[in-house]
Design a protein that fits this description.
Elements: H1 3-24, H2 34-44, H3 50-69, H4 96-106
Helix pairs in contact: 1-3
Length: about 110
């Protein structure tokens, strides 16, 4: 992993941990419950876009997966948490007249 990726993960995990401390007074990462993580995602929806929230959730999921692999915890509580639906940007396409004008312009 690059230094930038590690730095980004560190920052995103610190956001998560700070939230858990402030909202639930939970400083032990192994005692966090699934409902608290869902609340975290819901609270973020008030001010953040779904793509940003999904990136934070992705990092939290990777963190919990790492903790299971390294045997810090027995069960991955974020496994069943789904990502948020994201808005899809529609591309504006050319209509028939615009295509016809472009063809005539170049030929």
């Amino acid at each position: 992993m690059s230094k930038k990726t590690i730095s980004s993960y560190d920052y995103q995990i610190s956001i998560f941990i700070n939230y858990m401390e402030l909202e639930f007074n939970e400083t032990n990462i192994t005692k966090i419950k699934k409902v608290q993580i869902k609340t975290y995602a819901l609270d973020l929806q008030e001010t953040k876009k779904s793509t940003y929230i999904n990136q934070l959730l992705k990092t939290v999921k990777l963190f919990y997966k790492y903790m299971v692999v390294e045997e810090y915890i027995d069960k991955n509580i974020v496994e069943g948490i789904s990502y948020l639906k994201t808005e899809k940007t529609l591309l504006n396409t050319f209509n028939d007249q615009e295509v016809f004008r472009m063809i005539n312009y170049y030929f």
